[in-house]
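Worked example

This section walks through a single chain of length 122. The input is the sequence exactly as stored; nothing has been trimmed or padded.
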Amino acid sequence: MPKGHSLRLTAAAAAELGRQASVAGTPGMMHLDLVDGSCERWVIRIRPGHLAGVPVARADGITLFAPGDQSERLSGLLLDYRGDLSGGGFLVRAGRELRVCACGAAFGPVSEPSAKQGPTTK
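Given that input, the structure is written out below as tokens.
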């Protein structure tokens, strides 16, 4: 994992990733990639196993892999997990240079218009 180019995981996210990896039969390994979002530029998609790429986060016995060309976009993000009786989901938290949608699952750079706004015209 290159220093400074990593995603951080909360204890709750690491525990849920570990649980999902074990259920899927790939203990200790999960994969994420960025797909186009509807409310912001990107949404994180999480799947079991080491499908391709480089490790971007390690915590509590789980290694999270991502495509190498997406690892810089993940820098400065914190992946959290919140669950309750009606379900749960992963939430993204970001620093100043990134904007997170109110849904908590999508993010994009502050320098680009949000997907809701569309491109700006002058």
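What to look for: The two ends are 41 Å apart (CA to CA).
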